[in-house]
Amino acid sequence: MKKPKQTKSSTAKKAVENPATSPAAPIEAPAPKPAAESVSIDPERDEIVCDERGENYLRKTPMGMLEEAEAEADQRELADYRDTISLLRQKGFSFREIGEFLSKRGVFADHNAVYRVYTKFMTPEEKEEENRIQEEEREQDMQQ
After folding, report:
1. What's the sign of the alpha-carbon dihedral 75, 77, 82, 83?
2. How many CB atoms lie within 10 A of CB 91?
3. What is the DSSP string of the chain?
4. Beta-bridge partner residues of 57
5. Over the stretch 24-44, which tens digit does the pLDDT of each residue have?
6. Is there a contact between 93 and 74 (Cβ–Cβ < 8 Å)?
7. How far is Cα 127 from Cα 139, in angstroms, rounded to an integer?
8. Which of 39, 60, 40 has the alpha carbon at shortest distance from 49?
9. Least C-beta-crowded within 10 Å: which of 18, 26, 119, 139?
10. pTM of the entire predicted model
11. How far apart are CA 89 and CA 129, in angstroms?
12. Which of these ranges, 21-35, 58-72, 93-107, has the smallest mean pLDDT?
């Protein structure tokens, strides 16, 4: 006995009549956004602002921002690490590698900032060494 040939429409009808149960968790609707929290606002330090999407958010006033900035601990300047930068440069580290080295240790600086500090506090010997390194790099680039 031959089985009747199934068409796409008959297969679709069966799927609607007997949907396959999957082991995956059922799809849930997203949770509703919580109601606005009651926050005490000091009008001298905080303000409510509406962004371009029409959503409100809390922003510090200039006075509030100044008070927060004054309360922050002093940060060390990158220039305080110039000896470390010079030593790593002498060991052949690139400015990008030095920036990553410092960032991994909590001193966040990009390679441009490292370069600026390094060149600002260069000794005459370091200037000669840097010129030599740059000249070698240019020669290598021309050979390639």
Report:
1. negative
2. 9
3. -PPPPPPHHHHHHHHHHSPPP-SSPPP-PPPPPPPPP-----TTTEEEEE-TTS-EEEEE-HHHHHHHHHHSPPPPPGGGGHHHHHHHHHTT--HHHHHHHHHHTT----HHHHHHHHHHT--HHHHHHHHHHHHHHHHHHHH-
4. 49
5. 555 655 554 544 555 677 877
6. no
7. 18
8. 60
9. 26
10. 0.45
11. 10
12. 21-35
- Measured distance CA(83)–CA(89) in Å, rounded: 10
In 10 A of CB 74, how many CB atoms?
A: 5
Query: The tokens 């926050």 sit on which residue?
Result: 39
b/e string for 3-25 if b means 16 or more Cβ within 10 A? Answer: eeeeeeeeeeeeeeeeeeeeeee
C-alpha distances out from residue 41 to 12, 37, 45, 50, 134, Å: 58, 12, 8, 16, 56
